[in-house]
Please model this.
Amino acid sequence: MRRQYKEACDRIEMQWSMFSHFPDHNELKITYEIEDPDDFLNNSEVIRFLTQRGINYKLSNDLTNEQMAAINTMINFQDRRTRASKLRDLGITPAKWQGWLKQKRFKQFLHQLSSTEFSDNLHVAHEGLLKAVDSGKPEAVKLYMELTGRYQSPESQNVRLILAHIIESIQRHVKDPEVIKAIAKDFEAIMAGQLQPDLAAPVDSAAGASRGLIQIDI
Model:
């Protein structure tokens, strides 16, 4: 590979690693001083360099068959091989895998499938916990009792005590009994892990004020 192309490739690799960015034709001309970007991008040694490092020089959102196979293999937790062994058996270098992780579409698809794999295997966690309980492991028994509501840890009791004081304060300052009931219900749901407060529907400020809701200025 000619020296100018090699220097450009090294700089591109650094930019890709840091910012997940590949230069367009204008950048190649101005920033990287490549007189003929098409010749640069069609150079077999340049293509080999970029491909080996997982750099998306074609700026395509489509995943290759190799990438799809790699994702499916890497997220398969039932495959007991190490990550390094999986990559080696697929003929993929760690550098190429790391380069792929900089590609937006690749990362999105990887996260999507791994999230699905996570939710699809909740039964594995349940089974593991029950096996640990059956073998008499104290921490597993404690967790099981907490999850089933038969035991409350000191930390959980303290949180509930704090919430009780908060509700008492709300009752002193909010006069609408329906609002107080709704807030208490939300707290119970949050403690049970059944409600995400940041996803709750926003309250209209004017309507809230007329009903006695607490207004907080930040």
About this structure: The radius of gyration is 28 Å. The mean pLDDT is 80. Residues 37 and 68 are 29 Å apart (CA to CA).
